[in-house]
Design goal:
Largest sheet: 7 strands, mixed
Number of strands: 7
CATH topology: Rossmann fold
Shape: globular
Strand content: 15-25%
CATH class: Alpha Beta
Number of domains: 1
Radius of gyration: 17 Å
Bound molecules: thiamine diphosphate
Helix content: 25-40%
């Protein structure tokens, strides 16, 4: 019998997420990375405003709650306060990271802050009831685009990894998803690498996780996972958008 032990870094409490929401999977992957790297005692997570606002209840490491979008600024301060000992990650939705917090994201990346950013892109504002996000797809029906997102009126979705890859600063940018087992394994590897980079002093590492929101997408959990493949991934292709050490031929 295969026993799937809960990672120690994940608190033993029920999560509040909707059925089929992938925040829980991503929490687990972050906790597994913390366990495997043996860094729970010196890790500090920065929780966002959004559905994952209660992330501070779900991780056993120290956590700080940020004002909406400001997690990279807080992470910068916490990391710089004790760069040798603190391991700092932010956990943010697309409304938090790419809308109200876009400035903090871009400047932390440009400064190559030695932090780890977990960016959960579900193409909608989940917590507040399903308003359009900067990452909502063209044609996507949301509470604030009831006839579908019209670029004439609402502009185009923002591809965060591609945009940040234009900067000289960031060390590592990868987009993954968690809609099947194979993709979950790849997501785990990317998240662990984003923490390892910080331990190696390499700098700003962001993993974008294309995620689901069955409740606000108005779908069953199964249909939402399919929608990721059919609609989200053509707009948000998976892959590594920047890996400076690999580009420079480093083989760590
Ligand atoms: C300063 C401020 N503005 C607006 C809000 C309302 N608000 C709460 S969560 C949220 C967006 C959350 O969406 P996202 O970051 O995509 O995360 P999700 O809930 O989808 O996981 C907004 C706009 C707020 N709490 N504070």
């Amino acid at each position: 019998m295969v026993v799937f032990d809960k990672p120690h870094a994940l608190a033993d409490v029920p999560m509040h997420y909707c059925p089929g929401c992938t925040h829980g999977i991503i929490h687990r992957l972050v906790a597994e990375a913390i366990d495997e790297l043996g860094i729970e005692g010196r890790t500090i997570g920065i929780a966002p405003v959004g559905c994952s606002v209660f992330a501070y209840n779900y991780f056993n490491c120290d956590m700080i709650e940020a004002a909406h979008g400001r997690a990279p600024a807080i992470a910068t301060g916490v990391k710089r306060a004790d760069p040798e000992n603190h391991v700092v990650f932010t956990y943010q939705g697309d409304g938090d990271l790419a809308s109200i917090g876009m400035a903090e994201t871009v400047h932390a990346a440009a400064r190559n802050e030695n932090i780890t950013v977990i960016f959960v892109n579900n193409a909608i504002y989940g917590m507040t009831g399903g308003q359009m996000a900067p990452t909502s797809l063209v044609g996507q029906v949301t509470q604030t685009s009831p006839y579908g997102r019209d670029p004439q009126h609402c502009g185009y979705p923002i591809r965060v990894c591609e945009m940040l890859a234009q900067l000289e600063g960031p060390e590592y940018l990868e987009r993954v998803t968690v809609n099947n087992v194979k993709n979950i394994r790849k997501a785990k590897a990317a998240i662990k690498k984003a923490f390892q980079n910080q331990l190696d002093g390499k700098g700003f590492s962001l993993v974008e996780v294309v995620s689901s929101c069955p409740t606000n997408w108005g779908m069953t959990p199964q249909a939402a996972l399919k929608w990721i493949d059919e609609k989200m991934l053509p707009q948000y292709p998976l892959g590594v958008y920047k890996d400076r050490s690999a580009e420079q031929g480093e083989t760590k």
